[in-house]
Amino acid sequence: AQSVTQLGSHVSVSEGALVLLRCNYSSSVPPYLFWYVQYPNQGLQLLLKYTSAATLVKGINGFEAEFKKSETSFHLTKPSAHMSDAAEYFCAVSVHDYKLSFGAGTTVTVRA
Amino acid sequence: GAVVSQHPSWVICKSGTSVKIECRSLDFQATTMFWYRQFPKQSLMLMATSNEGSKATYEQGVEKDKFLINHASLTLSTLTVTSAHPEDSSFYICSAIPQAGTTYEQYFGPGTRLTVT
Predict the structure, then answer these.
(1) Tell me: the pLDDT tens digits for B19-57?
(2) Among positive and negative, which fits the CA dihedral B16, B75, A59, B110?
């Protein structure tokens, strides 16, 4: 079965600083990997996805992630944090059955 | 495109009653929809997979007689929480996969907050 581990339940960054959210996956077959953002009392919005094409994936709102098979990682980055980036972020993995397995989530706070 | 709605957005019900939550794909047809449950400050846990015209597939540990799922059309799936109890209070989120989807992407609804008193 596939799974993801998000390192760090809470990340605090200054406005304008780099945002780095870590995600490691476990899968016996080539995975599909996703990053989602969730604002309070809302559903999930897809930031970006890896589906076996380019290993560096660019998403919305300036986010990007790099798939590294050797490290089984799919870390999410944004060069310059904005106050609106404060939210909950989930990494998720899927194989060929469409089912998503989510990480525990990382709460991002942005300091002015 | 690819919008999923849920109704109601929040509901309060008394213990012992049943409540129905609707999940609709507004601009696409979905043969498969998923239902998730999210407790405060926690991740999403898959409850069941809903396939149009067939019985839902429940994840281990989910009571199928308590959480009734019906996927009667290509744009509508419903989750009925029967004989609700306070421990059923949670945020319920559905997602849908377009019938013609090829990228394994799910589109999520905005969620339904259920409070059982």
Answers:
(1) 999 999 999 999 899 999 998 888 899 999 998 888 899
(2) negative
CB B20 within 8 A of CB B79: yes
B56 min Cα distance to partner chain A (Å): 14
User: What would the two tokens of residue B60 be?
Assistant: 């281990």
Residue found by looking up tokens 């995975």 in the block: A31
Q: What pLDDT was estimated at residue B103?
A: 62
pLDDT category, B16, cuts 50, 70, 90? very high
- Nearest-CB residue to B46 (from A41, A51, A99): A99
**pLDDT tens per residue, range A28-43:** 888 899 999 999 888 8
Q: CB distance from B110 to chain A under 8 Å? A: yes
Of B43, B49, B108, the CB nearest to A43: B108
CB contact under 8 A, B42 and A94: no
User: How far is it, in rounded angstroms, from Cα B81 to Cα B83?
Assistant: 7
The predicted model gives B64-78 an average pLDDT of 93
Question: How far is the C-alpha of B47 from the C-alpha of B37, rounded, in Å?
Answer: 7
Q: What radius of gyration, in Å, describes the C-alpha atoms of chain A?
A: 13
Q: Using the beta-carbon criterion (under 8 Å), do B105 and A49 form an inter-chain contact?
A: yes
